[in-house]
Structures are given as C-alpha cells and as structure tokens.
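SAMPLE LOG
Freezer: B-3
Tube label: C17
Construct: single chain, 308 aa
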Amino acid sequence: MLGFVSVNARGNFTTDSTQGLDTNRIIKQGAELGVTTALSGTSPNWSGGAANNLSGNFYIRAFYNVKFKRQTWDNLLKINAGAISSTMLDNYGNKFRSTRKNIDNVFIDSKYGMSFDRLDWLSGYGGLNLQTQLLPGYSYARDVNGRETKNMVSSFLSQGSLMSAIGIEAKPSERFYARLALFSLKQTFMLNQSLYAKRNQSTIAGVNKGQYIRSEQGFQIQTGFNREFNFNKQILIRTNYLGFIPYNYKRNPSPLDSRIDLGATVKLTRYLNFNYTLISVFDKDLAQPGENAWQNSWVLGLGFLYKI
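STRUCTURE (predicted):
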C-alpha cells in the first residue's frame, strides 16, 4: 500500500505600501507538502523468507520571492525526512524491529539581487544557503546474539554547512537561472563534539576535534531549471546544482564539492500523481579513505495530490 498526500499553495500579487502610490512590488509565494507511506509483508512460511516493512517520508518545499523595481529577494526552503522500519530475526529466531532513516535533509537558500539598468536579466547578488539534517544518523551492526546495535555518526549541524556568496546572476526567464560567485565562504559545522569519540576519529568532514567550524574560501557555482510539460500528462521537472571550488583546489583533498537536486512530478489525474526526489552529494571530506565520494538519497511516491 503506497500513498502520497500533497498540498500546494501558490500566490502572485502586488502590494501597495504607500496607499496607491506604489504598485511595483510583486510577491510570489507557494508551498508543497507531501507524505508517502508504504507497508509490505509476507506470511511466515513464505519460501523467499518472511519480512514486514513500513516506510514513511515527509516532504516540504516552500518559496517566498519579492521583486521591487530592480531589486529581488528570493527564498527557498526544502525539507526531506523519512525512515523505514523492518521486522528482523536474531540468532534464536526471535523477532525485533529495526528502524533506520532513508532520507533526511534540510536546504535553505536566500538571495538578494540588484539588476543592471540595461540588462534586467543580469544582476549582482549576495546569497546564503544552509545544508544540514534534522535527526541523528547511525551506523548499524549485530551483536553476538544477532540483535541490532547502533552507533551515532551524525546529528543536527554535525555535519552541516553554511555558504555565503557574492557574485553575478543570470536569469533570462523564470525557468532558468545561473549564478557565479567569485567570492564564497563555506563554513562546515561539527557542533556535536561527542561524535569524535563515538566514531573514533580525530577529523570529521574536514573539521578537527576540538574545533566547531572549518572555513574555506573559494568560488561558487549554482544553477537551476524548472519546467512544466503538458503531453498526455502534466509533468513538472526541477533541477538544481550547487558547486564550491576552494581557491587552493590543487592542494585541497576535496577540490570540487557538489550537490545535485532533482525532482519530478507526473500528474496522472486531478488528484493522483507520481513523485521522484533525488539528492546527490559529492564531497571527499565526507567519505572514508577508499570509499566512493558520491552519496545519493532518493524517494519514490505515488498517491493523491491536493492543491489550494
């Protein structure tokens, strides 16, 4: 059984802060909320092995954009959180339940821009974006009895990152934008110092034990695309790329940090839709030596859609 519930609210309107003298301020805002749940099970005598799984995911996307003459202020919030719970057996055939995260990510982006006089699609901007997780993360193993054990390896802002940038943005249409920052400050947070002992490591995400923040200066690249297609079904695709290149990239263990977001929604009927969300991160500071530096998390949902 798989279900999806989504609420969508959008608004485009002008405000008049001077009682009729100023109607140039345009505000665009909207929100999408989604929940996916899935339940699967087998009978105890199933020849392929019995299993019972319950999963759920929660999704929020909200934006608030303001345009006033040559000035713009764009804000975006994205939250994805979910877990899967499974029935397992220990060495003696006793059942126990294992619950693990399958996605957990918070992304906040805020940008202030000022367009040029003769090229209104080109502007200078200053921006901030924050990336972290909501819930603690664990590594899992089995004890001598076959029972599950877990060890905390991450938590809120441990690790997390805040990037500030000053640069140029090109936005030829509402569907596409590209930003290039010649100066960007990336700050990586490790607020939970107990993780160094739990993980038996002196350095996590490039932050040394005893420190809370690691700062790097470099270039930032950000680009995004969103488009609605109307074939036999209405299809909405959103993509976003965020890259950071440190100034000393030739000597840096992670010369290009990247994050890719991909979202696709297919409206099957008035209330039924299909959703896919992918978050892909490349950062060598987050990977153990010899491990693949690409990390991927995705959610697939089918269910009901409700718009306001």
